[in-house]
Amino acid sequence: MKHALSLKIGPATFRIGSAWRQPVEALAQLYAAYPDPGNAVADFTVRLEPSGFLRRWLRPSIFITGDHGLADAAPMSLTHGLLAAEMGMNLQMALGWRRHLLLHASSVEKDGRALVMTGESGSGKSTLAAQLGERGWRLMGDEFALLDLETGKIFPFPRLVSLKNGAIDVLAAEALPARMGPLLAATAKGNIRHLVPRPDAVQRMEEGAPPALLLFPRFGHAAAMRGVGQGEVFMRLTQASTNYVALGEAGFAALTRFVQGVPARAIDFPSGEEAIAMVERLWEELA
Amino acid sequence: MNALLLVRVLRDPDSAAALDRAGWNALIAMARAERLIGTLALRIGDRAVPDAVARLLADARLDAEREVRQALWEADRAAEAMAPLGLPVVLLKGTAYAAAGLKAGQGRFIGDLDILVPRNSMQAVERCLLRAGWEWVKQDPYDDAYYRQWMHELPPMIHASRDRMIDVHHTVLPLTARPRPDAAAMMGDAVPITNELYVLSPDDMVCHSVAHLLADGDMAGGLRNLWDIHCLLDGIDPVALDDRAARHGIQPYVRQARRLAKALYGEGARLTLWDRIVVARLLARDGWGRDRRKLLRFAFYLRSHWLRMPPGMLARHLFTKWRKGHRPA
């Protein structure tokens, strides 16, 4: 394609092609500190194509696809090209990754052990991981946690953190401006700004850690905490995994081991500060 | 660039040794787009390839194993659902190749379960499947009526909990198509592989696959279908096949398929002008996995409708679909 770029994020290498210059330029700038994939053949191809006849030039609009795609994916404005590229990479991982059990979860690491947080979009798992990543934890990823099928370790997928709406100002107050991407206003998910993970998160992106605690965070409620039984954890994690069925028995074995070995709690919280205090307390107690 | 790269490596896996990074990237993207990545992985086997390629081919082999497992389970479930009817269930296409352990089934992507049953038992089959948890996919009354009146299969059904499609065929081509393959003869000569499940005889398997590729449809996924045919032709007696094709009224199509399979996947063949146009359509894929030659693709899309129905009916059909908002891709 006319504009192209290769990226390595955690264990996966992407080849991204675009009909326009802007999305590739934005990626190159924000991923500048990531390792060069060198001569490695890509695991996935991502394509940002015009969504229809003339849509390359006239009110340009992006259709996101690649090795794996969704026929009914909604087209996106070229002004949101960076987000489109990120979504394209996520799509390949969600539909095509087979080397780990993929959990739709954020994860952070401290003292060689991982904290995994899973929940629906809007639960606060991404913001919480980003904040912890600024406060002494190593950010492993805000979107996917990769559970190794053999060792049971969690491996990082530290792409850019996608901050939405209220979370933008929270993180802009903590991180250097140079690590913040452009404001993408009025996307389908509201306002979005990307955050480049701290250098240690990028340098150690191939380093896994055994999971020590699983949390189900829920933002916007009075502070509360409850235990979650293994059966419920198992069911919720199968729903949070995009490749559980595809992995067959290996996925079942890895998830069973995770569920039986890792303590789990659901936490409700009204603000980020309270969430961080709860997380630190639980980590002291349980991990 | 076109999909000749993919075709060449399938034909001669040793040729992959010469690929650089750009070549591998293109090959993998094409193979995924044509749903031939599993076949490619098995063809390359344990030849030395770059580490990153070895990893993604290993993934593809695992996916292919799962495809087979799921497809055979689905066939087993359908046989169970239809057991009260005491009918032979004839498996078609990918599931048949996998169930019969044929080379064409190795690494093959298997989407839907396709079965062939006698036309006069369609209603009973439909009732059995609905009782066992399959549901209609098409809610549109025009589509439903169209399938029932004119097609060679029931409207597609999907299993509510397993999310897998089943296509129940009673013959090979739409009733409106000009050739009329003899489905009763196919069922009569089918070969049992378990107590309830059958596959077509080797000659009929070729005929069915050819009819599907060249006498129906717009050649989407054509490289994969032609690979099936190439594998199925192995060990077939050309004279007997020719006779069988004549009986089904598709002799020219079968002859053309043999030329195309030889030209792309075999030792080469002399091609007619029309063969060359078909080859151009089959190879219309670039190194990013994109569809190329939009105009040629559209022409084959039109041809698929032309093959399926007489002109007056085609005009009515296209007008109805257009009013419902359908536009060709």
What would your notes on this structure say?
Chain A has 287 residues and is an alpha+beta fold. Chain A has helices at 21-30, 81-96, 125-133, 166-172, 199-203, 230-240, 244-247, 249-261, 272-286; strands at residues 3-9, 12-18, 44-50, 61-66, 76-77, 100-110, 113-118, 138-141, 144-148, 154-155, 161-164, 184-187, 190-195, 211-219, 224-227, 264-269. In chain A, the strands form three sheets. In chain A, strands 6, 7, 8, 9, 10, 14, 15 and 16 form an eight-stranded mixed β-sheet that branches. In chain A, strands 1-2-3-4-5 form a five-stranded mixed β-sheet, with helices on one face. In chain A, strands 11-13-12 form a three-stranded antiparallel β-sheet. The longest helix of chain A is centred in the N-terminal third of the chain and has 16 residues, at 81-96. The N and C termini of chain A lie far apart (48 Å). Chain B starts with a helix and ends in a 6-residue tail after the last helix. In chain B, strand 6 (191-192) and strand 7 (197-199) form a beta hairpin. Chain B has a seven-stranded mixed β-sheet with strand order 3-4-5-2-1-7-6. The mean pLDDT of chain B is 94. Helix content of chain B is 55%, strand content 7%.
Class derived from helix and strand content of chain B:
alpha/beta
Q: Biggest sheet of chain B, strands in spatial order?
A: 3-4-5-2-1-7-6
End-to-end distance of chain A: 48 Å
Beta-strand content of chain B:
5-15%
Let me know the largest β-sheet of chain A: 8 strands, mixed
Number of strands of chain B: 7
Radius of gyration of CA atoms of chain B, rounded to a whole number: 20 Å
Please state the CA-atom Rg of chain A, rounded to the nearest Å. Answer: 19 Å
Query: Which residue ranges of chain A are poorly predicted, with pLDDT under 50 across at least 5 consecutive positions?
Result: none
CATH secondary-structure class of chain B: Alpha Beta
Shape, principal axes of CA atoms of chain A: globular
Q: How many separate domains make up the residues of chain A?
A: 2
Which range best describes the helical content of chain B: under 10%, 10-25%, 25-40%, 40-55%, 55-70% or over 70%? Answer: 55-70%
